[in-house]
Amino acid sequence: MSDLSGYEIAVVSDSATIFALLATAGLERTPFQSPAWLDSWFAILQPSGMDCCVGVIRKADGGQPLFLLPLVRERCHGVTVLTVPDRGISDYHSALVSPDFAPDEATMDRLWGALMAMMPRADLLSIKRVPPEMAARMRITHRMRPSGFSAHALPIDADFATIRDRRFDASTARRLVKNRRKLEHKGTLTFDFVTGPEALSDLDSLLDWRRHRFQEFNTPDQEAVQGAFYRRLVEEGSLARVGRLRLDDELAAGCLGLIDGGRILILVIAYNKGFSNWAPGLLMVESCIAAAADLGLSVFDLTIGDESYKELFGADSVALLELQQPLTLRGRILLALLGLRPTLKHVLERLGLLDFARRLRGKAPAKS
Predict the structure, then answer these.
(1) pTM for the predicted model, two decimal places
(2) Is domain 2-143 in CATH 3.40.630, yes or no?
(3) Among 63, 90, 239, 268, whose Cα sits 20 to 30 Å from the Cα of 292?
(4) Helix, strand, coil % over all residues of the chain, rounded to 5
(5) 153-318 classified as CATH 3.10.20.90
């Protein structure tokens, strides 16, 4: 431990202490750093032997933690990287920060430098997809840069009818009204949220639909691990919800979301192909927004990904931030090489070599 500017700094690596720290109440974070999420993450997604630690900043009198930074150590591109628990599952990342943590920039720079000096040996610190408001609470916005990812969120600041009139694309809203009426002539159309063991069979249907739709992007092993993670998260029941749009007793479409702190975050959307003529995915999103308004939630968050349907519902786009900090010479070299990739790609395209390289790897057909 080290004392600096009236603060106490530590890096904790034993599992029992890590879980006790991450369960500390009153810390601001995204839902992807909540105890329920991290408990499932470490149970399902932490590979055997993966190092994990938590950087801790607290007042020097040994009080409650003010700043917690959970990290894991991985190998990537031949270097050792300290990064947040993710493996392609978490949309947003942040530290866990007390509202009372308010050092000035100079003090935070000293604290940050001391904290990095105590971290396990690694070449690079990589924290991606940080919401700007969390970067500000972490007091390290000046160390960050745009990440290339954006969040897409719809404020729920009125009743559903008003939100639809003000925010939805008018043509899409009319189309959804027509499609909903057509389905309602066939039976009773309902939407609800479920969680816990009751939701598992519907979750399996959603994941199966998604697996068939994106089978060219994910390997069976990746699908199996992600499915096990989502099943555990839903079965635990405190954070995850499965949204169900049903015609009578048949599931037409659904979503997997998180409800946390007045916000619902949508992670998975899938639909039954038997209902394709009625845009079931869009109907499900509309129903979910209406249900969120009825629950008194304040934000409908469609998270990352630039799919065009998010604009149809009037979601605002917010650029996310990232921190890429080299910790060794090897880390500096890697960041420099990664920074050259856009320039190298442009040069190869101009020389006509990029398509040639893709064909050699079997990723693009030869031109006739």
Answers:
(1) 0.88
(2) yes
(3) 90
(4) 45, 30, 30
(5) no
